[in-house]
Design a protein that fits this description.
The chain has 32 helices and 2 strands. By secondary structure, the chain is mainly alpha-helical.
């Protein structure tokens, strides 16, 4: 029962497969349960420290997505069993929400340099374009940076949902469009035949709004389908793909109408920002943009274009027939009132507010900056009067756009919350959205307290059942560990007001309680090999309490199972901590006198075996054996001598 512990062997027995260096390579871990896969990532972040917590967020996200896809596949196979299929779909949706939350945490802790478009590399450039100044503003101001991170998070999820196809070169979920199908052939033929007096009589792009008449029915359906596709692409930040789509169907005029702030939009973020960086790195692209701003004044053309988009959006919206088209042009000018009708989800509404607010704030600051000749660094050579005129009260943005925007990020979330009912707030999607909102606001103590309120209302260890399902229990525990690790980093990029340094403060206390609850969940589901990976994160009091409960549940297990538990415990927990826990379990077993004689003797033998499994405890083993032998000898019960002999044989 003694001997040196082989840590590598112990860890191999703890997990079905060895840990991998690359967390994102999960194909060879397909057979792992989600709990085991999460434990594998926890081990790499907190034990071997082979990867940082920020990067591991992406591995946690991918694990949830893989599990959700697997469950959805099983749900489709069980369509004939409606109740089971519905439960599986609910579980898959919760896992998707969890994956989105891990993605959000990665975005909040991500590097600014990977978020926005980088500066031009043209060393000979005499100054900065408005695009480069906007990038600097986002990098320097926390409020703008936070909005940009929200937009990046929402757009990246939208991009994933649209399923980019490398073979086709487009997003498969946007739809299939024939070459030049937007040339309005049906309307042209109807006009030539004169069979329909209730459609436009001219084919120029402005005919619909000028004559206030629709196109032919087939073309109206095609236009609606096209604008839904354009909206989806704009929604995921891919304005350049929306422009390409318009060109593909032959509507070059519409493509030009979307180019007012550049091929990639005015404020690209994330992956699109990296594409924009490469595009504007060329001398030709930079010089063309810079020369235009110098010649006409910074923002001169953009102001006119945004005002045109604003008027067009209002005109289209008033007709009641062009919701998607009105929303697309409203996005271009930040007119939130006409973006919202096209939104179908909480994420859409949050993106609409964030996008419009950031766009207008940046534009206002650029308008102010553009009146200062020093920003051009070429004040002696160029006339910047056009920029000053653009920043006048009659310029852009107009008051009607400004009045619809929130005054703070808290007010923005209040506006977003009004778009979903109180019933939704009590559901799993509502819970995750509340957590995401608090994370964006930097209220991480509130995040953990809210998670605790969802998990349980009373002390779980006193018999109370969790108030939520296993998905949220697992998620809450890991979220607490990740927040503690990320916020404790001196180079942390996440905005937070939480006191993470105080071991007995609200933050760390909440993390400990969430981890403890998850360990109890693992104990109940007999995931014994995973327990030490999490127990090492508990402070001393909770560690002893929880691990004693765990070992007590193994009191009737086989010797091999208990020996495995000792091997795992000594592999992950500090030696002194585990020895202290074993001694507590042993002492507690001597105090239990509620069992009948046979069970009492068996319990004494098993309790003695715990301490025998430790190294260098000869004196303690002898002391414990003497105490138990004395107790057995003093029992005034038939078979006492046989019990004592059996005990001495088994233990000593």
């Amino acid at each position: 029962m003694r001997g040196e512990l082989d840590q590598d062997k112990a860890r191999a027995s703890a997990f079905p497969l060895p840990f991998q260096d690359d967390l994102l390579e999960t194909d060879n871990l397909a057979e792992l349960s989600l709990e085991s896969e999460f434990a594998r990532i926890v081990e790499q972040v907190f034990v071997s420290k082979s990867v940082d917590a920020e990067t591991a967020c992406l591995a946690l996200e991918q694990a949830c997505k893989n599990q959700a896809e697997k469950i959805q596949g099983e749900a489709r196979e069980n369509m004939h069993r409606l109740g089971i299929s519905r439960d599986m779909e609910t579980q898959a949706n919760e896992l998707k929400l969890e994956s989105q939350t891990w993605r959000l945490l990665w975005h909040l802790s991500s590097d600014v340099e990977s978020l926005v478009q980088r500066q031009s590399v043209t060393s000979a450039s005499p100054g900065k374009t408005s695009r480069e100044i906007a990038t600097s503003l986002i990098q320097e101001e926390k409020g703008l940076l936070q909005l940009a991170k929200i937009i990046y998070w929402l757009e990246s999820m939208s991009q994933d949902a649209l399923n980019w196809s490398e073979e086709q070169g487009d997003y498969s979920e946007v739809g299939r469009f024939a070459k030049n199908e937007g040339l309005l052939q049906e309307t042209k033929h109807a006009i030539e035949r004169g069979v329909d007096k209730d459609i436009v009589t001219e084919l120029d792009p402005d005919a619909v709004s000028r004559q206030d008449l629709p196109l032919a029915a087939d073309n109206m359906e095609d236009e609606e389908r096209l604008m839904k596709g354009v909206w989806k692409l704009v929604r995921c930040g891919c304005t350049h793909h929306a422009i390409d789509l318009c060109c593909h169907v032959g509507e070059y005029w519409r493509a030009s109408s979307l180019l007012g702030s550049g091929r990639y939009g005015g404020l690209p973020v994330g992956n699109v920002a990296q594409e924009a960086t490469e595009y504007y790195r060329t001398e030709e692209a930079f010089e063309e943009e810079y020369a235009s701003e110098v010649e006409n004044g910074r923002l001169f053309h953009i102001n006119i274009w945004k005002w045109t988009c604003f008027v067009l959006s209002k005109k289209l919206s008033e007709s009641g027939r062009y919701t998607m088209e009105a929303a697309v042009y409203a996005v271009m000018c930040g007119f939130i009132e006409h973006i919202l009708p096209a939104c179908e989800s909480w994420e859409d509404v949050l993106w609409a507010y964030s996008k419009a607010w950031l766009d207008v704030q940046i534009h206002c600051q650029l308008s102010g900056l553009s009146t200062e000749a020093r920003m051009l660094d070429v004040q002696d050579k160029f006339n910047v009067g056009g920029a000053k005129a653009a920043a006048s009260p009659t310029g852009w943005p107009v008051s009607e756009v400004m009045e619809k925007l929130p005054g703070s990020i808290e007010e923005m979330f209040a506006n977003v919350s009004s778009f979903w009912s109180g019933r939704e707030r009590q559901s799993a999607p509502g819970h995750f959205r509340i957590l995401q909102e608090k994370m964006v606001l930097g209220k991480f103590e509130d995040v953990l307290l809210f998670a605790l309120s969802l998990v349980f209302d009373q002390d779980l260890l006193k018999g109370e059942e969790p108030g939520c399902g296993p998905i949220l229990i697992r998620f809450a525990a890991h979220l607490g560990l990740w927040l503690l690790e990320i916020l404790s980093n001196t180079e942390c990029k996440v905005q937070s007001t939480a006191d993470v340094a105080n071991e007995f403060g609200v933050f760390q206390d909440s993390v400990n309680r969430l981890v403890q609850i998850y360990i109890v969940h693992l104990i109940e589901n007999r995931k014994n090999s995973l327990i030490p990976v999490y127990a090492l994160h508990l402070r001393r009091g909770l560690l002893d309490e929880t691990y004693c409960i765990f070992l007590d549940t193994l009191s009737k297990a086989s010797f091999e199972e208990r020996q495995e538990a000792v091997h795992l415990g000594t592999s992950y927990l500090p030696r002194d901590d585990f020895s202290r826990i074993i001694r507590k379990v042993t002492v507690a077993s001597r105090m239990n006198r509620t069992l009948d004689h046979a069970a009492y003797v068996a319990a004494k033998i098993r309790s003695s075996e715990w301490i025998c499994m430790l190294d260098d405890t000869h004196s303690e083993v002898a002391e414990h054996a003497c105490l138990v032998s004395r107790e057995l000898a003093l029992l005034d019960t038939i078979g006492t001598s046989d019990s004592l002999a059996y005990f001495l044989h088994e233990v000593l």
